[in-house]
Design goal:
CATH topology of the largest domain: MetI-like fold
Mean pLDDT: 78
Number of domains: 2
Low-confidence stretches: none
Largest sheet: none
Number of strands: 0
CATH architecture of the largest domain: Orthogonal Bundle
Distance between the termini: 13 Å
Radius of gyration: 24 Å
Order of helices and strands: HHHHHHHHHHHHHH
């Protein structure tokens, strides 16, 4: 098991190196000039050139790339052109918001998605199964930002039950945090709920047809024990796969959802940096998102080994 863990960690290092390189290359070739943004519309070409020189934007590609990696090795993501603070500080300030909403959405995905998939499998080919899978298909088809806008209109504008946006720290008011994050979390989660429900149902149907499940039922074991102990345990590899993919999609969806609900998270920070061409913030935000995704996939690999010993021992 130890060798398996070490191997997966070593395999993640080249991925992070490639991701950091692609992040730098993409930002380097993005059109636009932050120097013009900083200088203002009345600036002369000489003033703009002085700003470019001060920010190091006139340096060759290789020089800037080497500086980028040198700073990364020291844990330095650079300094924001516009926020008057380091990129690390800007991200860490907003990271709890993004992670808390993502975690909340993931809990919703697991609770509703798995429950729906299990019930649909147990009641296969009935109106319950067809109804649940029909709703899951609708959820898969709806964009999260559209769901967010509809929720704001229905629950905030028409009914007045929820705030239209904003954020309250959990430590300040747990109830206030719940009210502020429920609609964003639901908007993110509903599409992934449908995916997890369908995958759980598919896996459960296959397992419920196995001989050992029929044997367990023939022994007179309660239905909940057959489903929960014998069947569900053998579906967890598929569930973990979907969850790993869902975390990446939830993180990506945060970029739009945080703007829709005015959440002061990393996603909104990246959007603002893109609009204002604050390249260090864009690079740092994208690199952080990619790193989280790589770490999540590493955890998924380890969970594979936990739920399926054949993977752990290479069989």
């Amino acid at each position: 098991m130890f060798a398996f863990i070490v191997g997966r960690i070593l395999a993640a290092i080249p991925v992070l190196v490639i991701v950091s390189l692609l992040t730098f290359v993409i930002i380097y070739f993005v059109p636009g000039d932050v120097a013009s943004e900083l200088a203002g519309p009345t600036a002369t070409p000489d003033e703009i050139e002085q700003i470019r020189d001060r920010l190091g934007l006139n340096q060759p590609f290789v020089t800037r790339l080497v500086s980028w990696y040198g700073a990364l090795l020291q844990g330095d993501l650079g300094h924001s052109f516009l926020l008057n603070q380091t990129v690390s500080h800007a991200i860490l300030e907003r990271l709890p918001v993004t992670l808390s909403v993502t975690a909340y959405a993931l809990v919703i995905v697991l609770l509703i998605g798995m429950t729906t998939g299990i019930i649909a499998a147990v009641r296969a080919n009935t109106w319950v199964d067809q109804g649940m899978m029909g709703i899951a298909l609708i959820g898969l088809s709806l964009p999260d930002f559209w769901l967010g806008l509809v929720m704001i209109y229905v629950f905030a504008v028409v009914l007045g039950w929820m705030p239209t946006g904003g954020y309250v720290e959990f430590s300040e008011s747990p109830l206030g945090w719940l009210r502020m994050t429920t609609m964003p979390a639901l908007s993110l989660a509903l599409t992934q709920v449908g995916l997890l429900a369908r995958m759980t149902r598919s896996g459960m149907l296959e397992v419920l047809r196995q001989d050992y499940v029929r044997t367990a039922r023939a022994k007179g074991l309660p239905g909940w024990m057959v489903v929960g102990k014998h069947a569900l345990a053998n579906v967890m590899v598929q569930v973990v796969t979907v969850v790993g993919v869902s975390v990446g999609i939830l993180l990506g969806g945060q970029i739009v959802i945080e703007s829709v609900f005015s959440l002061p998270g990393v996603g909104r920070l990246i959007v603002g940096a893109i609009l204002r061409r604050d390249y260090p913030v864009i690079q740092g935000g994208l690199l952080l998102t990619a790193t989280i995704f790589v770490v999540v996939n590493l955890i998924v690999d380890l969970l594979y080994a936990y739920f399926d010993p054949r993977i752990r021992y290479g069989r």
